[in-house]
TrEMBL record:
GO biological process, one term: spore germination
Organism the protein comes from: Fervidibacillus halotolerans
Protein location: Cell membrane; Membrane
Annotated InterPro entries: Spore_Ger, UPF0353/GerABKA_families
Record's keyword annotation contains Ion transport: no
Record-stated family: Belongs to the GerABKA family.
Chain ranges passing through the membrane: 276-298, 372-390, 402-427
Protein name per its UniProtKB record: Spore germination protein
Gene Ontology CC annotations of this record: plasma membrane
Length: 490
């Protein structure tokens, strides 16, 4: 008993150093019983204390802590004699009710909730489809998912990470569909984390990735609850982090980073066409500048005769070799992009447009770059924006530079070697232990139905082979495909 008093006293000693710590004594009007309320004003809603706790404790008859359950109109009320719970409960917005004669503690929920309103997705905006995005509140995010998957099989597991932040993390999956190996792997990686503070889900993504030294994202983060519900129904595992408006999805493949969720709201022909444009745009963004440098440096005989005159005319005033010219423009584009992203919205847009026009025109007139390369670099930058996932867009921006350097050193052979190294790295890469390059490698024809093109929904009756789900079939295809009877006049 003595140890308990010492531990409580030590906790009080630490809390009294904070200005938001309140410990107030009151007396019941009927029984003249003296009780104490202890709470932190920064995490506790004082209106709840003033309107829903204090009046009932002052004006109703009660003599012990067990009587409080029948007096207060608050469901979340806990009695305990465990002193280790005091610090946790106070920091989570609970009010501690104590009596001098009793060694128990009554914790009453009065948490202050500052929730941002649900808004339109900013990163994954779509013209067609739902217009709801996650917020920083874990309970609100779970509500957005629950109303889209109203089944008892949706399992919610709560974990805690961070010795200082005590961040709540929720693991979501569908019981009876999701592979147990994927669930156990994700759960174990979260439990093995040893870190003091978690500020956002991005911290978790970096720490639980299969290869933390790879520039490729191995988990898909999204701000769309409809996308989370769709991936859960496929058999994937989802993580929600308290305080973060982004969900983490795994395992994933490289193809999924080039698939916008709006593709599923369009006709399959249009969706497939737009998806192929994205793949072409990414390849163009990575390779066009390195091929330009390699061709002008080593392989000028590959240039058609009709284009040689144009290139010679555009570069006759440029005193630098193609690699210096290309690096200057590429770094200029990156500087403009970073400046536009870090400045306020209206100023950033102005800097991006005006800066690009002024610097591009001035560099050509000054003879620092050729107008042909300026067009290629501008198109490459524009093509990199077609990626629907922000993280893979950053990877594409980075990949251009090693291709550019090897193109200048070894020409087209260097570009081929760099591509071979990149392909080898991607083949070895995994997401939650699953192949990252699937369905390309290992080749799985069934999963091509939603890879480079999106086939109609009635042809997607099976879940992806990569996930190894407990229930492979999504629906009975025979009930979807029905023969259309001809009209009487046909």
């Amino acid at each position: 008993m003595k140890r308990k008093k010492q531990s409580v006293q030590s906790i009080k000693t630490v809390f009294t150093k904070s200005q938001d710590y309140k410990r107030i004594c009151y007396e019941n009007k009927i029984t003249k019983l003296t009780f104490t309320l202890t709470f932190l004003t920064t995490v506790t809603d004082e209106k709840i204390v003033r309107d829903h706790i204090l009046p009932f404790l002052l004006e109703n008859e009660w003599t012990k802590l067990e009587d409080v359950k029948s007096i207060l109109p608050i469901e979340d009320l806990q009695l305990t004699d465990d002193t280790s719970q005091i610090e946790k409960k106070l920091l989570n917005g609970f009010v501690m009710l104590t009596l001098e004669k009793e060694q128990q503690y009554c914790f009453i929920s009065a948490k202050k909730e500052n929730i941002r309103n649900i808004t339109v997705p900013e990163v994954e905006f779509s013209v067609i489809g739902p217009k709801e995005a996650f917020v920083e509140s874990l309970s609100e995010n779970l509500n957005l998912i629950r109303k889209r998957l109203q089944v008892k099989e949706l399992i919610v597991e709560q974990l805690e990470v961070g010795t200082l932040s005590k961040t709540n993390i929720v693991l979501l999956y569908l019981d009876g569909i999701t592979n147990e190996a994927n669930i156990n792997t994700m759960r174990q990686r979260i439990k093995d984390l040893e870190v003091d503070h978690i500020a956002d889900s991005s911290y978790i993504v970096q720490m639980i990735s299969d290869n933390q030294n790879s520039p490729f994202p191995q988990f898909l983060d999204t701000e769309r609850p409809d996308r989370v519900a769709a991936t859960l129904s496929e058999g994937k595992v989802v993580l929600l982090v308290d305080g973060s408006p982004h969900a983490i999805i795994g395992p994933v493949t490289i193809v999924e980073f080039f698939s916008a969720f709006e593709d599923y709201f369009l006709n399959w022909i249009l969706a497939s066409f737009f998806r192929l444009i994205r793949f072409f745009a990414v390849a163009f963004s990575v390779l066009v500048t390195p091929i330009y440098v390699a061709t002008l440096t080593y392989h000028y005989e590959l240039i058609p005769q009709d284009l040689i005159g144009i290139l010679v005319t555009s570069r006759r005033a440029v005193p630098f070799p193609p690699i210096i010219e290309a690096l200057f423009l590429e770094l200029t584009i990156e500087l403009l992009r970073e400046a536009g992203a870090r400045l306020p919205t209206k100023v950033g847009q102005t800097i991006g447009i005006v800066g690009g026009i002024v610097i591009g025109t001035a560099s050509v007139e000054a003879g620092l770059t050729s107008n042909v390369l300026l067009i290629f670099v501008a198109l490459a930058a524009l093509a990199s924006f077609t990626t629907p996932v922000y993280r893979i867009g950053n990877t594409i921006r980075l990949l251009r530079f090693p291709f550019l350097l090897v193109g200048d050193i070894w020409g087209l052979i260097g570009i081929s070697l760099c591509f071979s190294f990149l392909l080898t790295h991607m083949i070895r890469l995994t997401s939650l232990g699953r192949p990252y390059l699937e369905p390309i490698y290992p080749p799985r024809l069934q999963d091509f139905k939603d890879a480079f093109i999106r086939l109609p929904f009635y042809k997607q009756s099976k879940r992806p082979n990569q996930l190894r789900t407990k229930k492979a079939s999504r629906f009975d295809r025979k009930n979807v495909i029905k023969k259309v009877k001809k009209d009487i006049d046909e």
